[in-house]
Amino acid sequence: MPAHRSAYVLVVRVMGPDSAPGPAVPWQKVLWEHQPYPDNYVDQRFLEELRRNEGIRQYHYWAVVREAGFVGQQLSCVAIFITLWLYMEQGLLSPEKLLLTTLVCALLGYGLHQALTFQVESGCEPRTHLADLQSATLFLSFTFGFSPVLKTLTESVSTDTVYAMSAVMLLAHLVSFPYAQPSPPGSLSLNAALFASVCLASRLPGALHTFAMLSCALLVFALWPCLLQKLRENAPNQFIGVCVGVCLGGVGGLGSLSPGGAVLLALALGSVTLLCPLLLVRLQKQKDNIQGPWDEAEIHEDLSHFLH
């Protein structure tokens, strides 16, 4: 064997695999000390710190279905609003009846909301009834006064364009709605819903129809989510029943005018509230997140004293 080849074998045996020195110079995972190792060298302990699915949240199917019920009922609220508008456009529902129904529902919902608020926040100073009455009176007065203007707001716009804008705005309302904390509703979702309401109300026969439709829109898109959030926090069992009732009401109301639309709504509700939670739970089992020494360092020490 040539002399240079013998010397090469001797060096390999001393340095070990991957050109690493023998046990006399142990490797340390530090950056500030010069070591006789390549920059990308790791020893056998590298994979010992491997962690899988650390901090993964485990979902339960019926718990996810319960939370998805808020999405389903909001979709049904949009369907109920469209159904009421169709009834008014076709002359099957008078604005007086809609106003009376809206007023009764608003009073009942306000009483229930106040009862739930009093139970939870008994130690805080609640908003007075006089302030609530002033806010409601101010809104109704302005809406009633501007109803003739809103009625003629889209006269120069084609009906197809108005319907397309309303559909896009209602879709934006559903997409941007803050389902996790809907009280108060998000500004983007609420403005989109009210914009769609104004567009649809401007196509009704008279100013009183417009006023009734906008009052109903305020109840459905602004006040109802606040009450439903209170039910979700303080009465979970009643919350589930209310969501089911709203979904059935949306399908039944739409089915009285459009059976095909009711079928599509029922399929959408089934997908959102039953199928999507099932897929989430099933796919959660396929998660394989790994953490290890290659991750970025996380500082858990309280560094607030350095800011003073």
From TrEMBL:
It is a multi-pass membrane protein. The chain crosses the membrane at residues 210-227, 239-257, 263-281. GO terms for cellular component: glycosylphosphatidylinositol-N-acetylglucosaminyltransferase (GPI-GnT) complex. GO terms for biological process: GPI anchor biosynthetic process. The keyword Translocase does not apply. It is found in: Membrane. It holds the Pfam family GPI2. Pathway: Glycolipid biosynthesis; glycosylphosphatidylinositol-anchor biosynthesis. InterPro entries: Plno_GlcNAc_GPI2. The keyword Signal does not apply. Keywords: GPI-anchor biosynthesis, Membrane, Transmembrane, Transmembrane helix. Belongs to the PIGC family. PANTHER family: PHOSPHATIDYLINOSITOL GLYCAN, CLASS C, PHOSPHATIDYLINOSITOL N-ACETYLGLUCOSAMINYLTRANSFERASE SUBUNIT C. This is Phosphatidylinositol glycan anchor biosynthesis, class C.
